[in-house]
UniProtKB/TrEMBL annotation:
Molecular-function GO term, any one: ATP hydrolysis activity
Pfam families linked: ABC_tran
Source organism (scientific name): Nonomuraea aridisoli
Matches recorded under PROSITE patterns: ABC_TRANSPORTER_2
This protein's UniProt keywords: ATP-binding, Nucleotide-binding
Domain ABC transporter, residue spans: 5-242
Descriptive protein name: Sugar ABC transporter ATP-binding protein
Length: 254
């Protein structure tokens, strides 16, 4: 199976500090790939390189088997790569529709095409089976943490995206809301998207991912199928970078 998104040999430094060393990473359509690693392992940096926010120093990026060059967030968006950041970047004083179309508003002549935007927002939310939101004209400030996360994810998939990268989507959520968001994460993959889930929470990772990629001090320690590993083995990869008794060949499940 060809990965939808594949990185090879990515190096990234900030001044004298080398943060990513020869990193390889693959994400597949229809699957959730968890990107794990301790604080400072380089997860956010890697994602920002994919999203065109940081230029890479070396390495290659492939999309659906074809080499691509991403120099800006716009390049990433054109390929269908969307990133939902931890701080969500939703505007409290705007409603759900306004947030989902922020910066990419539909126009009808000089006026905003509110009807089309409402319809598309509605269709996207119901396509994701999101029923927790009362009205799409509700201000985002009135939403719960889980609902906000849902809106941010729906916003990312509104644009025919093919790869959705979620940075710690459940970090600030309680138990019930976490379950709802994880269900949504699974559904995104089931609709054919390649989903990358950055998470520190092993329960979340094991509940929803098909594969796990573990970064350790800026190097890819292992890429494995979730079904092939235990919690303890993944914790070992995160904390020591070693694959122990995993029997990996170059860090990848055979
Ligand atoms: N803009 C920057 N300038 C200099 N150093 C940076 C910059 N961004 C990140 N770093 C360094 O790169 C390393 C990796 O950071 P990064 O944020 O990618 O890790 P992370 O795995 O996402 O961590 P966390 O789980 O804490 O979010 C850290 O040592 C960090 O201090």
């Amino acid at each position: 199976m060809t990965p939808l998104l594949e990185l090879r040999g990515i190096d990234k430094s900030f001044g004298p500090v080398k943060v990513l060393h020869d990193v390889g990473f693959s994400a597949y359509a229809g699957e959730v790939t968890a990107l794990v690693g301790d604080n400072g392992a380089g997860k956010s940096t890697l994602v920002k390189c994919v999203g065109g926010i940081y230029p890479i120093d070396a390495g290659r990026l492939f999309f659906d088997g074809r080499e691509v060059h991403v120099h800006s967030p716009r390049d990433a968006a054109e390929l269908g790569i969307e990133i939902v950041y931890q701080d969500l970047a939703l505007c409290d004083n705007l409603d759900i529709v306004q947030n989902m179309f922020l910066g990419r508003e539909r126009k009808n002549g000089l006026l905003l095409d509110e009807d089309t935007m409402e319809e598309l927002a509605e269709r996207t939310l119901s396509g994701l089976s999101v029923r927790t939101v009362k009205s799409i004209r509700q201000q985002v400030s009135s939403l719960s943490g889980g609902q906000r996360q849902t809106v941010a994810i729906a916003k990312a998939v509104l644009w025919n995206s093919k790869v959705v990268i979620l940075d710690e989507p459940t970090a600030a959520l309680g138990v019930a809301q976490t379950a709802q968001v994880l269900e949504l994460v699974r559904r995104l993959a089931d609709t054919g998207l390649a989903v990358v889930l950055i998470s520190h929470n092993m329960n979340d990772v094991f509940a929803v991912s098909d594969r796990i990629a573990a970064l350790y001090l800026g190097r890819m320690a292992a890429q494995v199928r979730t079904a092939d590993v235990t919690h303890a083995q993944v914790v070992e990869l995160i904390t020591s970078g070693r694959s122990g008794d995993l029997g990996l060949k170059n860090g990848v499940t055979p």
